[in-house]
Design goal:
heterotrimer; A alpha+beta (353); B mainly alpha (287); C mainly alpha (297); A: 353 residues; alpha+beta; 5-stranded antiparallel beta sheet; 8 helices; 21 strands; globular; C: 297 residues; mainly alpha; MetI-like fold; 0% strand
Chain lengths: 353, 287, 297
């Protein structure tokens, strides 16, 4: 009984002291049956509220929430309470019941307790590699195991929708990638509609089919993760989905000037603009490179190693205050000078606000 | 302070503390030793001198007066404190649900109920004595277990509810939400999750209520008027003496009446102290 | 579908009802008793008027015009006020001494000793102190041995009340010690260590660092000392062997005395007064103090 989740003009206002704070401002959202939607946003933008409204733990101030065609919440009214929504939820804190063993945690959500249920729980546990820890208490489990028990608990009830709240933020960095891959795998295998909420773009990109960026109480952009990354609609979206250098530029007669470089941009109106270039779209070199344009000479200020590649901080010779992050395949001596190159098609132009 | 060396200061510190500790212990010491005195000791020694010929004659003498009241106290206090704690915990969970709700009307309601419960906890229970005795007289409950049980339940459920609602304030919200999402009704969540997670609070509330009820003097005083049938604190009062009473019997009676709360205090005192701290600060104390 | 929703809503309501109904029912009974008490206080119900009639505030006027009321009310105020003052001072002093005890085990033992009187029935405490105040074999025996003047304690009208006050201090100071110590322990350790580094003496640390950061201890100790002492009944009752000793009578004892002499309406009038005074302290304490602390703000 997997459902399509639809939100229509959902708003939520909290009272904070004497002030009214509008956390959500008319959010429209559709998560198709079996799809995995990611919601990305900085903390305090209503991500958690949105998720709690879908789960039925919070009442929308106005607007409607549908599961398929069924109205489940409307203005100031919860029509179907959370216990009847059949939601599988993985909390940021996991929220495992500390007084129950892993198996009982998972079984707690399942209505009938027969042999069939036991089999099913064991199957899921097998899939999530927690079969051998089912008789342990949550406090005896590692962070990764706790997260997988929480996931198993959410899946064991055959949920209509799976909701994951910052599911990886409490995990060690080194197991995060495998946890993400596992979530993606079980989501597809169960064919369950899923909603992942996170502030970390890496979570969203590795799990979600569609992602939305929530800013100031509404979606600034919804699209595939790649779209968000490559064609962000604003500097704020660009910044949220990945690291980016922001520069000032000018467009004049179809030509964009940024630093010492000039790029053809026919799609932009004349005037001052913000220019965004991701570190991997920049290179520092002594010579010209095919398909890249020069942005002028720069001086290397910092050269560091970041796991798999080198990371430089450079400044244009004539503008010491401007600093850019550049990925590099080799370290460079400090204070050495070189030419900064950019992939022209990857340069993003935003309206100056 | 420079004229005192650190050793002198440390010595003075210990000395002053020791003096207060001794003063505080004297009445309890007197209670323990004087019950063991023989008739000869009573006439020859003051209350500060330990018995020269320890004997149990005083205990034997008062036992026949106190056995029934002691048993009555056990019969009334133990089950009532269990029931009151449990019912109070249920109500406390209801307030928890009210107070985490974002609805402002519910929040107002929860504040009102909280104040009423606090008032009922701290209100001098002497203040409703006349209506209570009237009701109990009408129902034929005076001088019965039922009458004492009814009064204790009435007065100590608010205490339990207040204490438990403060112990429950630290329940992790996510876990309660998770249980809801898992389709668990409020009662099931209470029994399967809330109770196991608040066991230390439940024990503290229980211990606090046992000690308070056991020591309550006023309620049995007005609800029982047959000396032999009352609860233990009132029974002890008949040994206050006056001329002709031997003091070893007073102390033996006092000791018998205090043995249960004192044993609880010695072995489970931290739960009683936690109950007190919670009553005052909502569990904020660091002792 | 509509019935399914209705059923689930009903289930939810029944669940909540099961949680709160027992307490709600008993609270309503308690409230009913309070209101009934209030009703009686406006009647003239007594031994002489066995059928209560409405007389307005007459019973209040009668109950409060007696010399017993005045002396018992003054005693209650003196007992509560004095206990708040002395209890707080004892709390500060003893908690200060305990705070600087190095071994935490020893500190717990000392604290338990100061609290122990609270674990014993006040009636039993009364019985014990009756003998300690005995003029031949009690404290006086010790005073005479030490060549100090013997005191008449409970047997003189001028020393009876102070004698009872001493017992109350002994019994209830533990409360204040507990909450002051809790406050002191809650003060950031690094503040104390910083003071030590700066060569600040123990006394100065206590007065300048510990006390100013312990306002919660003051509030709680004061509120609880008032609430516990205002309803002290068994101590004056046991020490004076009944409700009639004028020099030890407190308001609640006077109320009980009116009850035993079957001036029911007057007794309920005093009860109403006592409840109102308690409410005036409890409600702000519960709402501003407890509620805020509970919410972990």
């Amino acid at each position: 009984m997997v459902v399509t989740v639809k939100l229509s003009k959902v708003t939520k206002t909290f009272k904070k002291g004497k002030r009214n704070v509008e956390v959500l401002r008319g959010v429209d959202l559709v998560v198709e049956r079996g799809a995995c939607m990611g919601v990305l946003g900085p903390s305090g933008t209503g991500k958690t509220t949105l998720m709690r409204i879908i789960a039925g733990l919070e009442v929308p101030s106005s607007g409607e929430v549908y599961f398929d065609d069924k109205l489940v919440s409307t203005s100031n009214r919860i029509i179907v309470p959370p216990e009847n929504r059949n939601i599988g939820m993985v909390f940021q804190s996991w929220a495992l019941y500390p007084n129950m063993k892993a198996y009982d945690n998972i079984a707690f959500a399942v209505k009938n307790k027969g042999e069939e249920t036991r089999k099913k729980i064991e199957e899921i546990a097998e899939l999530l590699d927690i079969l051998h820890v089912l008789d342990r208490y949550p406090r005896e489990l590692s962070g990764g195991q706790q997260q997988r028990v929480a996931l198993a608990r959410a899946l064991a009830k055959d949920p209509s929708i799976l909701v994951l709240d910052e599911p990886f933020s409490n995990l060690d960095a080194r197991i995060r990638d495998s946890a993400r891959a596992l979530v993606k795998k079980v989501q597809k295998e169960f064919g369950v509609t899923a909603l992942v909420v996170s502030h970390d773009p890496a979570d969203i990109f590795s799990v979600a089919d569609v992602a939305g960026v929530l800013l100031d109480g509404n979606f600034a952009q919804v699209g595939s993760p790649l779209e968000l990354y490559d064609s962000p609609v604003s500097a704020s979206v660009a910044r949220l989905v990945g690291e980016i250098n922001e520069l000032d530029g000018v467009v004049e007669g179809g030509k964009l000037r940024v630093l010492r470089g000039v790029v053809e941009r026919r799609d932009c109106q004349d005037g001052n603009v913000k220019v965004g270039i991701r570190p991997e779209d920049l290179r520092v070199s002594e010579t010209e490179v095919q398909g890249m344009i020069s942005l002028g000479k720069v001086r290397v200020k910092v050269s560091s190693y970041t796991g798999s590649s080198f990371r430089l901080v450079v400044s244009p010779l004539e503008e010491e205050k401007v600093e850019l992050y550049v990925n590099s395949d080799r370290p460079m001596p400090i204070n050495s000078e070189a030419v900064l190159l950019a992939k022209p098609e990857k340069i993003k132009v935003f309206k100056n606000n | 302070m420079s004229e005192f060396g650190p050793t002198v200061k440390a010595f003075l510190h210990q000395l002053i503390l020791a003096i207060f500790v001794v003063i505080w212990l004297i009445p309890i010491y007197a209670m323990v030793i004087n019950g063991l005195k023989s008739e000869f000791d009573v006439t020859s020694t003051p209350v500060f001198i330990p018995p020269l010929h320890p004997s149990l004659t005083a205990f034997a003498a008062v036992w026949s007066q106190l056995d029934v009241p002691l048993l009555n106290s056990v019969i009334v206090v133990i089950p009532v404190s269990l029931v009151a704690t449990f019912i109070g915990a249920m109500a406390a969970y209801y307030f928890y649900l009210l107070s985490v709700s974002k609805r402002r009307s519910l929040n107002f309601m929860s504040n009102t109920i909280f104040s009423l419960i606090a008032l009922a906890t701290f209100m001098p229970y002497q203040a409703v004595i006349i209506p209570l005795t009237r009701i109990e007289a009408n129902w034929g409950l005076l001088n019965t277990y039922g009458g004492a049980i009814f009064a204790f339940i009435l007065f100590y459920i608010p205490t339990a509810a207040l204490l438990m609602s403060m112990f429950m304030a630290v329940l992790p919200r996510d876990i309660i939400d998770a249980a809801r999402i898992d389709g668990s009704g409020d009662l099931r969540t209470f029994f399967r999750i809330v109770v196991p997670l608040t066991i230390p609070g439940i024990i503290s509330t229980l211990i606090f209520n046992v000690i308070e009820m056991w020591n309550n003097f006023f309620i049995p005083l007005v609800l029982f008027n047959v000396a032999k049938q009352t609860l233990i604190p009132v029974a002890v009062e008949s040994f206050t003496g006056g001329y002709g009473t031997l003091y070893n019997e007073s102390f033996a009676a006092a000791f018998l009446a205090s043995i249960i709360p004192l044993l609880i205090f010695i072995f489970l005192g931290r739960y009683f102290i936690r109950g007190l701290v919670t009553l005052g600060t909502g569990g904020k104390g660091a002792v | 579908m509509a019935t399914l929703e209705g059923r689930s809503r009903l289930r939810s309501i029944l669940n909540k009802a099961a949680l709160v109904l027992p307490t709600a029912a008993l609270s309503i009974i308690l409230l009913y008793l309070v209101l009934w008490n209030l009703y009686y206080s406006f009647t003239n119900w007594s031994l002489f008027h066995s059928i209560p009639e409405f007389v307005g505030l007459l019973s209040y006027a009668q109950a409060m015009s007696t010399v017993f009321f005045r002396s018992s009310f003054v005693h209650s105020l003196e007992l509560s006020g004095g206990l708040i003052l002395v209890g707080n001072l004892m709390g500060m002093l003893l908690a200060g001494l305990l705070y600087f005890v190095r071994s935490s085990k020893l500190r717990t033992v000392y604290l338990s000793i100061f609290i122990a009187p609270l674990a014993i029935s006040m009636a039993v405490n009364g019985v014990i102190w009756l003998w300690l105040y005995n003029l031949q074999i009690g404290i006086d025996w010790l005073l005479v041995r030490l060549s100090l003047p013997a005191l008449p304690w409970l047997s003189s009208t001028s020393t009876a009340f102070p004698s009872m006050f001493i017992v109350a201090v002994w019994a209830y100071s533990g409360l204040a010690v507990l909450f002051y110590l809790a406050s002191f322990m809650g003060v950031d350790k690094s503040l104390i260590e910083a003071a030590k580094m700066d060569g600040v003496g123990t006394f100065k640390t206590f007065f300048r660092v510990l006390l100013p950061n312990s306002y919660q201890g003051v509030i709680v100790a004061t509120a609880l000392l008032f609430l516990f002492s205002f309803k002290i009944f068994s101590l004056p009752f046991v020490l004076s062997g009944g409700p009639t000793n004028v020099s030890l009578q407190t308001t609640v004892v006077y109320m009980y005395y009116l009850y035993t002499t079957e001036f029911f309406a007057q007794s309920t009038a005093i009860a109403t007064l006592v409840t109102a005074i308690a409410a005036a302290v409890v409600i702000p304490f519960a709402l501003l103090g407890l509620r805020r602390w509970v919410r972990r703000e």
